Structure formats: C-alpha cells, structure tokens
Amino acid sequence: MTSPIIIAATAASMAFLAPPAGDRMQTVAADCSDAARQVMAETGGELLSAQPRNGVCVVTVLVPGKGNARPRKITVRVPME
Asked: How far is CA 76 from CA 5, 9, 58, 62, in A?
C-alpha cells in the first residue's frame, strides 16, 4: 500500500510543475475559433483544424469539389487580433 505522505508529495509536485492556466490560452482559442468560423463561412468548407502559431491562426478546411471533382484541402492563415 502506498504511503499517504508519498501521495501528498506527488500531488504537490504535480501541481507545482503543471503549466499555468491563464486567460491567454482562452483568448487564443477564442480567436482561432472565430477565424475558423470565418474561413468556413467564406469557403463553404468543413473544418479539419485550427491552430494558433506565431500570432496567426492556421485554419485548414476541406472544401467540396465542383461536380464530380474531389474535395480540396485548403489552409488559410488568419492574423490574430
């Protein structure tokens, strides 16, 4: 059986080493979700991914092909505000 002291020490170290949760992460996510909605509306595509990178949101969508053409994958970079 594991000692309660070891469990407490492990929990304390995990809390200390955990990355801080802050408003910056939520702001980035909100900016990229807005950018993703914008790109999807403009292209009529289906969202594949939206990731923040170096001050821009990299949004990748799958756009339906015309007629019998295959769908196309398009990547758009949207500046974060």
From this structure: 51, 46, 6, 11
pLDDT at 81: 72
Sign of the C-alpha dihedral computed for residues 24, 30, 32 and 35 taken in this order? negative
Give dist(CA 71, CA 52) in Å, integer. Answer: 24
What predicted TM-score, i.e. pTM, was given to this entire model? Answer: 0.60
> What ranges do the domains of the chain cover?
23-79
Q: Which long-range contacts (CB under 8 A, 24 or more apart) does 40-49 make?
A: 43/74, 43/76, 45/74, 48/73
E strand map for the chain: 46-53, 56-63, 72-79
φ, ψ of residue 63 to 5 degrees: the values are: -100, 130
